[in-house]
Amino acid sequence: MRLYKNVDKILLVAAILIALLGVVFVFSATYERAVTPTPNLEKLFVKQCIWAVLGICILLLISRIDYSRVLDFSYLFYVINLMFLFFVLVKATERYGAKRWIGFGFFSLQPSEFIKISVILVLATFLGARKEHRGSFGNYIGSFFIVAPAFLLIFL
């Protein structure tokens, strides 16, 4: 486990506790529905546990990446995620009266979750490059034009 000796242990414990709470909450929220019509409660619980473990593994992998390298690609991630949001408007299937998900066979993706991270990264890159203009009107306008496309594509 030498690879992860520098992992923030408090962050890791917090992530594990949040994942466990999520599994418990999903279990309790689906218990009544799963038991009454179809007895798939165990399947739902196992599926949620698998995703929680996968999320913790992804956390450990991502924690190894130098954040400055991620910022180098922030605009690319942002554009790709905007394209996914546009694709949702054009091609996604409607569920419960809303188009939010892109289906990939055995799993579905909700691009609005990824655009949140992309917007934060692009804003960090943009504002970090303009530190000397902190609080300027140009920073506010630039930030608005970074957030606005994602906001509009989500709410259309």
UniProtKB/TrEMBL annotation:
It is found in: Membrane. Pfam families: FTSW_RODA_SPOVE. The chain crosses the membrane at residues 44-63, 75-93, 113-130, 137-155. The keyword Membrane applies. Keywords: Cell shape, Membrane, Transmembrane, Transmembrane helix. Signal peptide: none annotated. It is a multi-pass membrane protein. InterPro entries: FtsW/RodA. GO terms for biological process: cell division; regulation of cell shape. Its main location: membrane. GO terms for cellular component: cell division site; plasma membrane. GO terms for molecular function: lipid-linked peptidoglycan transporter activity. PANTHER family: CELL CYCLE PROTEIN, PEPTIDOGLYCAN GLYCOSYLTRANSFERASE MRDB. This is Cell cycle protein. It comes from Candidatus Omnitrophus magneticus. The lineage of its organism: Bacteria, Pseudomonadati, Candidatus Omnitrophota, Candidatus Omnitrophus.
